[in-house]
Structure formats: C-alpha cells, structure tokens
Design goal:
Elements (H helix, E strand, L loop, with lengths): L2 H9 L3 H38 L7 E2 L4 H6 L3 E4 L3 H6 L6 E2 L5 H4 L9 E4 L4 H12 L5 E4 L2 H7 L12
Parallel strand pairs: 1-5, 2-3, 2-4, 4-5
C-alpha cells in the first residue's frame, strides 16, 4: 500500500476526489485569467477615454432618415477624399475632407444639424467626434456611409463640389 493511499485511509478520504478538485481548478484557471484580462482592458479603455474627454458614443442615423432631416435644414458634410466625392455624392452635400475639417469648421453653422458622411461610416464617426469636441450641438453620422446610402436605393450626384 502506498503512502498516499495509507494517508487517505487514515483520514477516511479517498485520494481520487482531491485530485479531481485540483484538475477542475487547473482547467478553470485559464478561463478566469482570460476574463480578468478582458475586464481590465475594458476598464483601462474607459478610463483613458474619460481622461481624454472623449466618448465612444456616435449618434448614427439610417439613410432613410436623411431626406427628412435635410428638409428640416440639416447639412450633409462629406468627409471623403476628392476623387471619392467627385465619383458620387449625396446631392447638395458640402465637401470638407476629414483632414481639413478642423481648419474649415468655421464654414459650418452651429444652429443646424450636421450629418457627417464617408464611404462606410468610420471617417464620419471621426468627424462626429471632432465637431462634438468643437462644441457643435447637433451632429449625426450616416450609419454605413455612402455604401448604405446606395444599398438603400438612393441616387448619387457626380461632379465637382459646389463652393
């Protein structure tokens, strides 16, 4: 009889259940470490955003919301590159490339809603945050960008931007 089985017999316990407990705790340890890492990343990201004064929130609108908003005075600001804008844009949209937005935001009224748009929605979300930080009160980003606009069946206008 081995030493461990003699100890188990003396204590009235079988050696197997304790080894199962160890095996279970070893198997769950990586899961708990992964959960801890994920929670840490989320908390640190939120703290960085809070310290930077930023927000993850972007007011997005669907393509079908745009015509009514424009009828009520909203302005569409297309933040894509020149060649993308010329190839096809929403009628009467204002072209201000994302790279120039901070320099040209004085061209935008603060008393009207501004709808930012790009190809897929990523750059327009950046434009949203730039305008938000500058104090523009009514901003929205076209969800899915020009790709969503075209997929929804809306037409495009081609040609140079209107000054």
């Amino acid at each position: 009889m081995s030493r461990s089985s003699r100890r188990a017999k003396k204590s009235g316990r079988n050696a197997r259940p304790s080894s199962r407990r160890r095996r279970t705790s070893r198997n769950t340890r990586p899961f708990f470490i992964l959960v801890l890492i994920i929670v840490s990343v989320i908390v640190v990201g939120a703290l960085i955003a809070q310290l930077a004064g930023g927000s993850f929130y972007v007011q997005e609108i669907e393509p079908q919301d745009v015509p009514a908003m424009v009828s009520n005075g909203a302005i569409i600001v297309d933040v894509r590159l020149h060649e993308d804008y010329v190839a096809g844009h929403i009628e009467n949209s204002l072209w201000i490339p994302l790279e120039e937005l901070e320099l040209r935001m004085s061209e935008l009224p603060t008393d009207r809603t501004i709808i930012t748009v790009c190809r897929t929605g990523a750059r327009s979300a950046q434009a949203f945050h730039i305008l938000q930080e500058a104090g523009f009160p009514n901003i929205a980003s076209l969800k899915g960008g020009m790709e969503a606009w075209v997929a929804a069946g809306y037409s495009l206008q081609t040609g140079e931007p209107v000054s």
